[in-house]
Amino acid sequence: MPDAAVRLRHPRWWALLVIGLWLGYALAMVTRLPTWALPLVTVGWLVLARWQRWGAPARPRPVARVWPWSLVPLVLWGLYVYLVASFGEVDLGAVFFHLQAGISEHGGGERIISALLHTLAMLLLLVAFTWLVRVDHRWRPAERLLAMVLLAGNPMLYGLGQRGAAIVTDDGAWLDRQYVAPVILDAPASPPNLLLLYLESLEHTYADRERFGDAYAPLATLGEQAMVFEGVRQLDNTGWTMAGMIASQCGTPLMPAGLLHDSQFEPLGKVVPGVDCLGDLLAERGYALSFMGGASTSFAGKGVFYRDHGFDRVMGREELEPRLEEPDYVNSWGLYDDTLYDLTVEEIRRLERQGGPWGLVNLSISGHAPHGYPARACRERQGEYDGTDILYSVECSAWLVRRLVERLRDEGLLDNTLVVVASDHLTMRVSAWESLVAERRENTFMLLGEEIEPRRVRVEASTMDVLPTMLEAMGFVIDWHRAGLGVSLLSGEPTLVEAHGLETLNTRLREETALQERLWKGLEPPQPPEGLAAGESVVEQILESPGEMPVETLDELP
Fold first, then answer.
1. Secondary structure (3-state) at 374
2. Residues 34 and 63 placed together within one structural domain of the fold
């Protein structure tokens, strides 16, 4: 026992343990191995290390003061593993867009702590691997090959390479040719109001009772009175909140303008200014439009998007928190959904009093990854919350929205109103992740209204098809039953997903630029500040696109 204790105090086993834990963690995150496989991988590594005498060769050589070639590739893999562990799937478009649009006023405080812990663990891995390479000469030639394998096999670098392929792709305009500018050709004599309720991350996949029990049941009950669309898939560049809202309101994926738009990383002055979206179309028809969400509208360009696309009132945490009767009843993102929905009822009452058609877009927070933010009303109904079970938060979100619709209906506030209930995107990594990714995943999308026949419709579609479907459900006549890249699911016309398949569309998104140019057309170069010395220049926006693109840069920002 004393000899064993001495061996365990030797840095060899600590270094090998750190490497083994990282290996197990990385495999569990980036593959579909269950998390309980992590210790098995670690133990397997340690057994192999003992058999091969790694760190203690039979014929040792002097310690070499070398730096492994693999350190940088390991750092890049560490970044990729962190993104996968945090979000489930890495969408480079999301990374680029949030760098552009601004990430201040976010509510993910736990993400910061996680990032710090991850960085510390990554430093330990680099130290452990450096020690192994310096002490065990057998690793020195092999790790150079390992460095190349790590670089070539990193999915994040592969994705960057695919985006770079847009420069040399033969046809970078196929998606743009599929785009149909949204146009309302005719409207009903008394156009209906619109209530669009986005449920954060509340995907239709949760409706599977065998995997998720009754978590989705309150929403399924509401769906018995609605036209429910099953099969609404998620394309690349539509898998986070702003991208999901733009896909369903503009009929296009959110292809970022570029990694950098100026030298200060200032927020975007406009969001997809080159296309008309739901708000633009309804504002032209005299609709009074409001947006309400519990989180800050400064995050990710949310407020900029809605203000620039026809909305009269844009209300987030900053505008709504002063109206709370209990100022301390907030979470790290902002308002809980029970108080948000109370304020939503007040806003609809106001819109009804002023007369004329109105539209209200609402964004919930209860189902937000990784654990959700269940409201007090849910805790009183569902009992104690363990702080991690996402199914508890899913049930909370589903129940709250059903209660909101029933309350509005009972007050007579939904007369001549189309109610749309939709998930903004598929959820990111949560406690039920392994069950979610085990089978095909779908978004929530349902319509309720006086003219809507309750039924279930199985489709092959994407969230881009939501815009034309909403417009036709409201009685508007649109060109070719299409808007953007979307096709009305009420028309019987084939969607792009049906005609070409999800993978083909995703490949096009990664390789094309013409649609990206269309989205961001109208961005102007920033004006040089006063007193700019002769010869000094202002950094223009850098776009992920060929050099022959027209210059499209940002407005001057304050």
1. coil
2. yes
DSSP states of 22-66 as a string? HHHHHHHHHSS--TTHHHHHHHHHHHHHHHHTTTS-SS--PPP--
Q: Helix (H, G, I), strand (E, B), or coil: what is residue 344?
A: helix
| Token digits of residue 513 | 């630029």
Residues 213 and 232 in one domain: yes
Q: Quick one: 342 and 398 in the same domain?
A: yes
pLDDT at 557: 35
Both 503 and 517 in one domain: the answer is no
One domain, residues 421 and 442: yes
d(CA 369, CA 108): 9
The pLDDT value given to residue 529: 45
CATH code of the domain in which 403 resides: 3.40.720.10
The per-residue pLDDT for 155 is 79
Q: What is the pLDDT of residue 156?
A: 74
Per-residue confidence (pLDDT) for residue 259, from 0 to 100: 43
Task: Locate 212 and state its tokens.
Answer: 């998720």
List, in order, residues 6 or more apart from 530 with CB less than 8 Å away.
none
Going from the C-alpha of 492 to that of each of 235, 458, 475, 496, the distances in angstroms are 21, 12, 16, 13
- Final residue belonging to a domain, choices 167, 202, 234: 167
pLDDT at 171: 61
User: Which residues in the chain come in under a pLDDT of 70?
Assistant: 1-10, 86-111, 158-171, 258-268, 523-558
pLDDT tens digits along 224-282? 999 999 999 999 999 999 999 999 999 999 987 764 344 334 456 789 999 999 999 99
Identify whether residues 189 and 83 lie together within a single domain: no
Q: Is residue 307 part of a domain?
A: yes
How many domains is the chain built from?
3
- Does residue 386 belong to any structural domain of this protein? yes
Report the alpha-carbon distance of residue 490 to residue 469 in Å, rounded. 6
Of 167, 185, 209, which residue sits at a domain end? 167
* Residue 259, token pair as written in the block: 């990694």
Residue reference for tokens 């070639």:
69
Helices then strands, counting H and E runs in the chain, come out as 23, 12
Pairwise CA distance, residues 436 & 421, whole Å: 21
φ, ψ of residue 421 in degrees (nearest 5): -115, 125
Is 305 found in the same domain as 388? yes
Look at residue 55 in the predicted model and tell me its pLDDT.
87
Strands 193-199 and 358-363: parallel
Rounded to two decimals, the pTM is: 0.81
Do 475 and 542 fall into the same domain?
A: no
Neighbours of 357 (CB within 10 A): 20
pLDDT at 380: 96
**DSSP code for 322:** G
Of the candidates 313, 309, 314, the residue with the CA atom closest to the CA atom of residue 297: 314
Place of tokens 């670089």: 151
Per the domain annotation, does 542 fall within a domain? yes
Please check whether residue 368 lies inside any domain of the structure: yes
pLDDT at res. 3: 53
Question: What single string gives the DSSP state of each residue in 454-500?
Answer: PEEEEEEEEGGGHHHHHHHHTT-EEGGGEEBTEE-TTS-PPPHHHHH
Neighbours of 85 (CB within 10 A): 17
Domain extent for 478: 174-254+272-512
